[in-house]
Amino acid sequence: MESVRIPAAVLALLFLTASCVQGDFVEPLEPVTFLRSLTESQTRLPCQYKEGEGQKVVQVSWQKELPGGNKEQVITAHFTDGHTEFGRYSGRVKFESSNPTANSALLIPITEDSDEGTYICHISTFPNGNFERRVTLTVWTLPISSLDAVTLVEGQSYGVAASCRAVGRPVPRLSWDTELPGQSQNYTSEGGAVSSHYSLHPLRYMNGKKLDCLVWHPGLDKPRRISNKVEVQYPPDATISSSTDHWHVGLEKAELTCKAGGFPIPHNITWIRKEERLPDGVSAIGGKLVFGRALRANDSGVYECIVKNTVGVGKIEYLIAVTADQRGIFQDVEKDKLMLIIVGAAAGVVVLILIVVVVLVSWMYKKRTRRLKDQVNNFSRQASMRKINSEEFDLRSGNDLTVRTRSRHSLMSTDNAYKGSQSTLVGKWGHTTMDEVNRPVVWDRSRECLNAEMEERKRRTESYVKYSNMSLDSGLPSSLVPVKSQQDEYVPPKEPDPSHLQERDSPLEFDGVSHNSAENDEGRLYNLSAMKNYFHNDNGVLRPKPGCNGILMNMREQVI
Q1: Domain extent for 116
Q2: How crowded is residue 163: how many other Cβ atoms within 10 Å of its Cβ?
Q3: Is residue 130 part of a domain?
Q4: pTM of this structure
């Protein structure tokens, strides 16, 4: 290992010694360097060699390689004889330093396209020989651009509005900045020239609109803008305005003013009176027709303004009708007032109609609400009547005693009974007082009628209990069923079942059991007599008798 390391150390020492003895390039560091420059600008080709110990730069020369492989002398500098420029480079190139052997950089003050190529910096030293560096130069040309605008006329066919051209190295690129509808076409020619044409269909609204050309090139930080505006010419159009709308005899300082549009702006304005010459005392001053005196009746007529530009002619007419007096002014004023009155009256009628509609809608809404409320009250009142006037009792004393009875002579249906009940209520309470929910007061003589009704029901209940042999619920004889006291709770009768209405006589039934004993007959007779206290026979229909609580009881199955 030691035998290997010793030669390596020796080689390193020899290399350092050679480096100290032999010089090297300070710039450029690479054997081949690429540079880029612009025409008409100064170009610097770097080359600087640092002498080593015991080394001397004797001569420096620059050469250019030709396409065929040959070399062309550019400039040479000797450490004792000075420098020499060759051929077409004479006066166009120079060394950057006054001591070319120390700093051999070459300067081209005004660079041309022909300067593009590969240059060789050749350094001759003593005693170490020659050394070289190559520099490849690329020359760019900033674009030279121009724009040619075309004057268009409205009505022309589709055509070129502007042309943009540019020349440069490398070839530039062209584009258009506009909001106008159109199409561009680009063309490229030899030598780095490019052109672009923008075509459109000319219309008058395009006049003065932006149509800029943009030139793009790698040598530019941003595109170069060539500003331009479209020029579209069109014939003039004229308008006439007057100092008054009421032309009458004696009017002072009357005049007409003619204004003309178009492009180019017309300056030739002419006034005529059709089929007649202008009246005396009337003069045309520029775009105005001035009446220098009071109006006369013969000033009436058709006056025409004629304007011209390079594209065409524009005309407009104005009729002057001179009235004999000034009544026309007041008539027009009165017409305006009458129009205002008509408009105000129409608006008032519309508002009145809206008010009437709102009132009618509100009235109909209230009427409908009141009708619904009455229907609800009627339903509530009918339900209360059916509940109050039913003949059903619930007698509870340990076991419930329920006695059912059916009508013997009823020929009425449920619907007829309901209708009869309604007619009875109407006849009974046609002129009676109403309570707080708009219902007829049933208990007109409340306390007396209530007492009488309670006594009658008490008597009937005792009679049924007396003549009943057994309890329907327990199966015991009626004598063993305790009688319910007067303080027992009163349960309103249920609605009778229409299916239990019979068209023929049938004995009273207690839970479907018929009792033919004399004692039961006496009870049934009492039941019939009790029913006669409330009803009377009217052509085969049971009608309620008038009384404290005259109602119609439906002849259906009753629970007593």
Answers
A1: 22-140
A2: 18
A3: yes
A4: 0.50
